[in-house]
């Protein structure tokens, strides 16, 4: 099996879907000879540019999104690129009005499209903002965030085949990061299914994207002091895998949620609510959330490192959580 980076795995998955289904087409900014932002479509133009199904679009997020929604409603399966997360806010209109079209029309109409976008702290500097929570509020939409090349290929293929709109969030620190064996064979990773990346008994760390990588590093550090942390990779922000989340925390009885989106209104609040509703009697410590403060993402690298949860911060929160002793009852 070839060893691929995340972005190479995504391109491989897209190529397979392009070959499999003639209704699939690609559209976006700089996806032609330039290879897409951060080489997110590398090799696609050379291989498929002659087909007329790869459209190198001008810089107009609203037009790209509206055109793809229209094409999807007419039976096509567009995959479009809006570069970076903050630019997706320019495309909120069609998603807000038509994301749930399948449900609104009792399945008569559907909008099978995929919007790729990039976010997160990275060596590229800039465009760090994570706006996944904005889209997670829209019923009928799906939001995925892969962490590994294997998951990325399987999820992009599932996204292309889904009959509802999917936001595909790619962390810029992971796109060209660690290589992993990725099968050439056709396989899918189901949307809405989390994955336990590390088994543990003392607490569950729930994360997505880059925070999974940092949580795994923190878990290795915690193990040196005898604390065994379980790490759950959500993979999908919407829908959340409530069953696996509750099952894991019911075993470890402690939960730490880590994400790169702002703490206020972030998906960690939804995970905490799920645990409060379905695992409250199993918890022996409060559910903790570790996420950036409700402030603009700083550009200074020093401030950025203090702003985004790092390995040391995860270790510190997990240690406090495991050592939590409830106050004695006043009764």
Give a description of the structure.
This protein is α/β, with parallel strands linked by helices and 331 residues long. The chain folds into 2 domains: 3-181, Rossmann fold (3-Layer(aba) Sandwich); 195-322, Rossmann fold, CATH 3.40.50.920. The protein has helices at residues 6-20, 44-48, 61-73, 92-98, 101-104, 132-136, 149-161, 210-223, 242-252, 267-278, 301-307, 311-322; strands at 3-4, 24-29, 54-57, 77-84, 114-119, 142-144, 166-171, 180-181, 195-198, 203-207, 229-233, 236-238, 255-258, 288-290. The strands form 3 sheets. A 7-stranded mixed β-sheet has the order 3-2-4-5-7-6-12. A 5-stranded mixed β-sheet has the order 9-11-10-13-14, sandwiched between helices. Strand 13, helix 10 and strand 14 (288-290) form a beta-alpha-beta unit. Helix 1 (6-20) packs parallel to helix 7 (149-161) and helix 3 runs parallel beside helix 4 (92-98). The longest helix is centred in the first third of the chain and has 15 residues, at 6-20. The chain is globular.
Note the main sheet: 7 strands, mixed
Number of strands: 14
The residue ranges in which pLDDT falls below 50 over 5 or more consecutive positions are none
Structural class: alpha/beta
Cα shape: globular
Main CATH class of the largest domain: Alpha Beta
Task: Give the amount of beta strand, in percent.
Answer: 15-25%
What is this structure's SSE topology?
Layout: E1 3-4, H1 6-20, E2 24-29, H2 44-48, E3 54-57, H3 61-73, E4 77-84, H4 92-98, H5 101-104, E5 114-119, H6 132-136, E6 142-144, H7 149-161, E7 166-171, E8 180-181, E9 195-198, E10 203-207, H8 210-223, E11 229-233, E12 236-238, H9 242-252, E13 255-258, H10 267-278, E14 288-290, H11 301-307, H12 311-322
Parallel strand pairs: 2-3, 2-4, 4-5, 5-7, 6-7, 10-11, 10-13, 13-14
Antiparallel strand pairs: 1-8, 6-12, 9-11
Helix pairs in contact: 1-7, 3-4, 8-12, 9-10
């Amino acid at each position: 099996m070839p060893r691929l980076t995340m972005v190479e795995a995504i391109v491989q998955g897209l190529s397979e879907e392009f070959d499999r289904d003639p209704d699939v087409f690609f559209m976006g900014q700089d996806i032609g000879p330039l290879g897409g932002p951060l080489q997110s479509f590398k090799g696609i133009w050379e291989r498929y540019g002659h087909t007329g199904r790869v459209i190198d679009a001008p810089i107009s997020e609203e037009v790209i999104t509206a055109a793809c929604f229209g094409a999807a409603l007419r039976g096509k399966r567009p995959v479009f690129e809006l570069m970076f997360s903050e630019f997706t806010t320019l495309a909120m209109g069609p998603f807000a009005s038509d994301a749930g079209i399948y449900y609104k029309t009792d399945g008569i109409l559907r909008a099978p499209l995929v919007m790729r976008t990039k976010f997160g702290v990275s060596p590229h500097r800039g465009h760090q903002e994570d706006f996944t929570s904005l889209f997670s509020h829209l019923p009928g939409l799906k939001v995925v965030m892969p962490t590994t090349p294997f998951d990325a290929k399987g999820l992009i293929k599932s996204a292309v085949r889904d009959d509802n709109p999917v936001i595909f969030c790619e962390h810029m620190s992971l796109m060209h990061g660690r290589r992993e064996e990725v099968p050439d064979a056709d396989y899918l990773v189901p949307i809405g299914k989390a994955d336990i990346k590390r088994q543990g008994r003392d607490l569950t760390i729930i994360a997505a994207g880059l925070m999974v990588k940092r949580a795994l590093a923190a878990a290795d550090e915690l193990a040196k002091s005898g604390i065994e942390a379980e790490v759950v990779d959500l993979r999908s922000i919407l829908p959340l895998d409530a069953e696996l989340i509750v099952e894991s925390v019911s075993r470890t009885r402690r939960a730490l949620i880590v994400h790169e989106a702002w703490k206020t209104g972030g998906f960690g609040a939804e995970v905490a609510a799920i645990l409060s509703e379905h695992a409250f009697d199993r918890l022996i410590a409060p559910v903790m959330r570790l996420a950036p403060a409700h402030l603009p993402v700083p550009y200074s690298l020093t401030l950025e490192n203090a702003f985004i949860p790092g390995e040391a911060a995860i270790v510190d929160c997990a240690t406090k959580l495991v050592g939590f002793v409830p106050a004695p009852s006043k009764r």
